[in-house]
Design brief:
- The chain has one domain (about 1-159): Lipocalin (Beta Barrel).
- Helices cover about 15% and strands about 40% of the residues.
- It contains two helices and nine strands; from the N terminus they run αββββββββαβ.
- It is globular and about 40 Å long.
């Protein structure tokens, strides 16, 4: 279940870029958690019907995310999962902007759906190290204002 949550988070995090999450120059931590093969594949959301996402394994701890729009445009991301105090976060890296986008991942009990909640872009803090970012998240992750709930989205995996 833990691996499933991590993989779903990664896949879905990529899918939520439309929600304008917090942008960071550093990730929460380095990729450590193994890729969950069950979550590789195609993901869609009613909230973002103009895009579909294809998740593949980049290496043992990272995912490659391809975002394809209905107009034919394609964007690529590299992603990995971080766990903080039992919560799962997605670190979604854009090669084109050299930026990490951060999301909280919530997996439904059946594992077929995943919700991504962007970390709020209104945070004023910028961090020079992953350790400082992680410490800040640990301290503030239970505050409602820490997330942009209006831009949360649910994603479904297509078989």
């Amino acid at each position: 279940m833990k691996n499933l949550l991590q993989s779903v988070a990664l896949c879905l995090g990529c899918l939520l870029l439309y929600g304008c999450p917090y942008e960071s120059t550093v990730p929460i931590d380095t990729p450590k958690l193994p890729v969950d093969e069950k979550l590789l594949g195609q993901w869609v959301s009613d909230a973002e019907s103009y895009n579909e996402y294809f998740i593949t394994k980049a290496n043992n701890t990272q995912y490659r995310v391809q975002q394809k729009s209905v107009t034919g445009n394609t964007a690529w991301y590299l992603a990995h999962i971080s766990e903080i105090k039992g919560a799962t976060f997605l670190n979604l890296y854009s090669d084109s902007t050299n930026t990490y986008y951060l999301y909280r991942v919530i997996l439904n009990p059946d594992g077929a759906k995943c919700s991504l909640v962007p970390v709020s872009q209104t945070l004023n803090e910028q961090f020079q190290s992953s350790a400082a970012l992680r410490q800040y998240i640990e301290k503030n992750m239970n505050l409602r204002s820490f997330y942009n709930n209006d831009d949360a989205a649910e994603f479904l995996k297509l078989q």
